[in-house]
Amino acid sequence: MFRFIVRRLLQLIPTLFGLSLLLFIWLRRLPGGPETAILGERGTPEMRAVIRRNMGLDEPILVQYGRFVRRLIRLDLGTSTSTKRAVTTEFIERFPGTVELTITAMVIAIGVGIPLGYLAARRRGRFLDHASVGGSLIGICIPVFFLGYLLKAIFSENLHWFPSSGRQDPTLGATRVTNFFVLDGLMTREWDAAADALWHLVLPSIALASIPLAIIVRITRASVLEVLNEDFVRTAEAKGLTEQTVRRRHVLRNAMLPVATSIGLLAGGLLSGAVLTETVFAFSGIGAFVAEAIGQRDYPVLMGFILIIAVVYVLVNLLVDLSYSFIDPRVRVR
Amino acid sequence: MALLEVEDLSVTFARRGQRAVHAVDGVSFSVDAGEVVGLVGESGCGKSVTSLAIMGLLPKQPGLRVGGKAVFDGTDLLQLDDRSRRDIRGRDIAMIFQDPLSSLNPVIPIGLQVTEVLTRHRGMKGETAAKEAAALLDRVGIPDPKRRLKEYPHQLSGGMRQRALIAMAVACQPRLLIADEPTTALDVTIQAQILELLKELVRDSGTALLMITHDLGVVAGMCDTVNVLYGGRVVETARRRPLFRQPRHPYTVGLLGSVPRLDAGRGEKLNPIPGSVRDLLPWPEGCAFAPRCARRTDECVGEPPELVHAHDGRSYRCVNPEPVPGLVPAPREEESA
């Protein structure tokens, strides 16, 4: 088990190396550059050249990459060309919001998706089944930003149940410890701050959860239907076990395997998918910052963001693989 | 009175816009306490569906209709509600299946799969249940039962898996054990061991055994009474010896003829039954076996043949049965006596 984890973490190194090299070259091939973003259309070629030289962009690309890697080893992602602050500092401030949002969305997607998918399978062909299958199709089809605006219009502007933007009411003057606002509130015992932060999370996380929720419902439903037809379920029935035991012990546990895989794949994607949701709800996470960075051709920020997403992806899927060996004894990690 | 009396059992699968399929079409047979009864036929003849219908394990689906009676110890199993059925299953009637690997839950240890029956029907828990489970595994010939209890199905060999399933089935000393082709998925040497084990278990505990098989070798080695099924109906019922010595129904004759024999002469060919189970005539239009039958006459088509009860306690469903050597040919008056 331990060796498996170490090996998987070591595999991360070549992955990140390859990914960063590809991205490094590819980003610099994009038309325009930070100098255009700074100067606009009117900058003279001389002014552009000065800026490029100051940023070290006039050197050969491999030299630039070498410098990037040397800094990366010291966990230094460089300085943002647009805010002039260290990329790591920017990330430490902004990532927690995105992580908070992603985790809440995942909790909603899993907590609602698995029971709903299971019930749909049990009531196959009945109203709940049709409703959840149809609903999940809508969930997959509706663009996140549209759903975001819709939720905002209904629950915030009309009904005033939830705040429409931001992560917390600034007038509370909450203390910052980790920049995870809910966690901060709990740690400093500022309960009202924690509740307010949680309140701000509701609408954006529902919007973000819509697609993974729909996918989890469908995968759970299909998986349960498949397991219900398995021979061992018939054996369990032949033993005269109660319906409850058959479902919990024999059906659900076996049906969870494909669901676990999909959760791993979804969780990584969710982190990068938060960009749109954050923009709609003016939620100060990493998303809005990165969207801005694309326009500014802010290479260090983009590199850092994509590398972190890659690391998160690998870690989440490592967790999923580990959870496999708990769910299914046939998958023994070595 | 018989322990299990199946009377005119029928199972129909109806699909909207399609012709209803009569998988089992009026099957009747009985099993006495402690008796070993065979249900024999080719694939698709309705033998597995019969057993699942008795157990109430047919997959619930719209269009499924089960008719007739299956009276076990005075209660009609087909009329029971779900809860009472679950009380009987595993305790009074147990079942073992064809493919031991897929019949075991892959993600929970063998031990729990045995103890859950003990907990459900015998109220055993914890240490007591574990001890009893080990004793059961030992009884079905699994060596080192304590260690095996912690293992998972994929860590056991095919024969061991079937033994484990048998242990689960006999855990509550049921009065009837239904075995649905229990050896089909196993090696020949293992097959013999499993059959030997089953024989031993039913002899020692007085459990009745309903053996469902297509293998006449299994029948010859185990069964007291044999029911031959064709197209969802019983076409011949007889004690084992008379059946093998003098089969009366042409289908039984065909089944026996298609078994390879070691004492056959060199170059002697097997005699398979021509055609397949699919070439059957719906029973209301005559004898289902008629399209494949060598002894077909004009009388075979038009009306379904009645079950003929012969004087020696056997019965067959045929208008032109195989003659019994020593008797005068055309024995039709004698048969109905």
Strand percentage of chain A: under 5%
Put simply, the count of helices of chain B is 11
What is the multimeric organization of the chains shown? Answer: heterodimer
The percent range for strand residues of chain B is 15-25%
The counted number of beta strands of chain B is 12
The SSE string of chain A, one letter per element, is HHHHHHHHHHHHH
Number of helices of chain A: 13
* Nearest-integer average pLDDT of chain B: 85
Beta-strand segment tally of chain A:
0
Supply the helix-strand structural class of chain B.
alpha/beta
The CATH level-2 architecture of chain A is identified as Orthogonal Bundle
What does this structure look like?
The complex is a heterodimer of chains A (334) and B (337). Chain A is mostly helical. Helix content of chain A is 76%, strand content 0%. Chain A has a single domain (87-327), classed as Orthogonal Bundle (MetI-like fold). Chain A is built from 13 helices and no strands. The N and C termini of chain A lie close together (6 Å). Among the domains of chain B are: 102-171, no CATH class; 250-335, no CATH class. Chain B has helices at 47-55, 82-88, 110-122, 126-139, 145-150, 158-170, 188-205, 216-222, 240-245, 250-257, 332-335; strands at residues 4-13, 21-31, 36-40, 64-72, 75-76, 93-96, 176-180, 208-213, 225-230, 233-239, 308-309, 315-316. Chain B is globular. Chain A binds chain B through residues 125, 229-232, 234-243, 245, 249-250, 253-254, 327-330, and chain B through 55, 57, 59, 62, 82, 85-91, 94-95, 97, 99, 102-109, 112, 116-117, 120-121, 152, 154, 165, 168.
Summarize the structure.
The complex is a heterodimer of chains A (334) and B (337). Chain A has 334 residues and is mostly helical.
